[in-house]
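Hi there,

I know you've been waiting on this one. I reran it after we fixed the sequence typo, so this is the corrected version. Both the input and the resulting structure follow.
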Amino acid sequence: MSKKTHQQQLAARKAQRQAERDAERRRQRRNLAITVASVATVVVVIVGVFVVFGVGGDDKPAASDQPTAAPENKPTSIPTAMAAAPKRATPLAAEVNCVYKKSAEPASKPVNPPADGKVKASGTSKVSLNTSIGDLQLTLDSALAPCAVKNFLSLVGQKYFDNTKCHRLTVGEGLQVLQCGDPTGSGSGGPGYSFADEVYPTLKYGRGMLAMANSGANTNGSQFFIVYGDASGLTPQYTAFGTIDEPSVKLIDKVAEAGVTPQNGPQDGTPITPVEIKTATAAA
């Protein structure tokens, strides 16, 4: 082999090795490019998801996620704080005279009116109403309304409230009460007699209070109501005569939350969850 031929072969092998090295570098660069592109794609996807969530967080929720308004026949809210026990700014005399007048309407259930006469305007009495939703514990305050307390205890003693239903529930703002005491369940029944109001100008109604229902001035009979929530819409023309304890009020909350079957408007009617007074008992 001539020297020239040998040099040509060496040059050819050198060129081949260079070509192979160039090809390997191109392959490596391609692999690196794919890897970088893949990482870039992942980063873009991650950023994209983050941005989507970020934007989504500022968007309004879909219609199905929007909070729905409470039905009109249920309370939108019920205050949870118990009202302070009512108290007269000016105490009554040590004794007051109570008069129970016969009404034009007959008694809805056989009962005798309390005896007329003097009654002490001091002291408290406990009454338990065993009902279909649980026991309701009442405290009657003679310093507030001695004639109303005497009347209520008389009705309890004669079992007038036994096996009667609380016929009315109101759930609107400003008037959240449960009304009971009518044996007919119609809202028009009574004991066949009435007695005078025992109200005062600073009287305010709140959660946990008991008061007499009426159909006008001095028409108190047997119907009463329990304030379980907001009663800011009431003016001082209903005789307050005691309170009900907090566990008992919470039982009524559940009744209110179930709503009413409307009768006197969408927020005033009979409770969907029936409340029946099975027995009423005064503590000895």
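Quick highlight: Residues 1-48 form one domain.

Best,
R. S.
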